[in-house]
User: Fold this.
Amino acid sequence: MGELDGKVAVVTGSASYIGTAIAARLVANGAQVVLADVDADNGRPAAAELGDAARFVETDLSDDKALDVLVETARREFGGIDILVNAAAVFLDDRLATSREDWHAAFDLNVISFAVLMGKVVPSMIERDGGSIINIASISGKQSQPGRVVYPVTKAAVLGLTRNAGQLLAGDGIRVNAVSPGWTWSRSLANRYGSRERGDELAAEFQPLGRLADPEEIADAVVFLAGDRSSFMTGADLAVDGGYAALGPEALGRAFERIPTID
Ligand SMILES: NC(=O)c1ccc[n+]([C@@H]2O[C@H](COP(=O)([O-])OP(=O)(O)OC[C@H]3O[C@@H](n4cnc5c(N)ncnc54)[C@H](O)[C@@H]3O)[C@@H](O)[C@H]2O)c1
Assistant:
């Protein structure tokens, strides 16, 4: 028996390593899952690997009609929705030179699509006497990061959305929480660094546990928030960041070695 037996989940951004791992862990714990992403080349095979418990819906999350199709598919195929995981993101960021159009596009996907989809799944959750919504935020929503402005501000907004929706939906038995990953192995890091080893080496400078997170480590926190073990948590932000947010400005590695010791 899995802790999510009989539950139905929708996972957005499910073509990403993190999104696919979340869908897989939800299925492994007994849930049926609808995977949604605009990237069908990676999303469709990810869903196929999960067998009968999973469906893929090619979805542009900035299109409200596509969100209706997604919700309708979950109802038709699996009978309703108990769990929503908002995990899609765009990384548009030209710092303060970012065009108004790109600011709108980043907020539209990273924040507004989370909120609109939450609104669309709530009726089904109420019909099923409650639910759990998990928003993937980031360490970037809590600390500034070199070379970035737009993406971190959208992630800070995700944390605000989580707090406000958490209090708003508590009376309906719907809990809303965030997971804030640290640097995690992903398709974009694979493209940027070429190898997991190089990514781990760089992450070891600022994640005290000494490496990138595995996507499955983010997924395990999502499973916890999706199920009854987290029954008294709402509006919270669960850090899965290898200690990133706990670290002071000295950082680890080279910067730390440059600080004179007192003895
Ligand atoms: N990788 C990290 O280090 C890290 C750290 C903290 C938080 N996160 C968060 O984890 C999640 C996954 O990110 P990732 O790093 O794996 O990046 P990613 O680019 O691989 O994943 C983002 C996903 O969102 C999808 N997407 C983008 N626009 C869409 C649209 N209009 N409609 C539907 N889907 C769309 C993409 O196709 C992609 O599959 C994001 O929410 C990200 O902010 C990642």
Notes: The CA atoms of residues 137 and 241 lie 11 Å apart. Residues 13, 15-19, 37-39, 59-62, 87-90, 109, 136, 138, 181, 183-184, 186-188 surround nicotinamide-adenine-dinucleotide (CB under 6 Å).
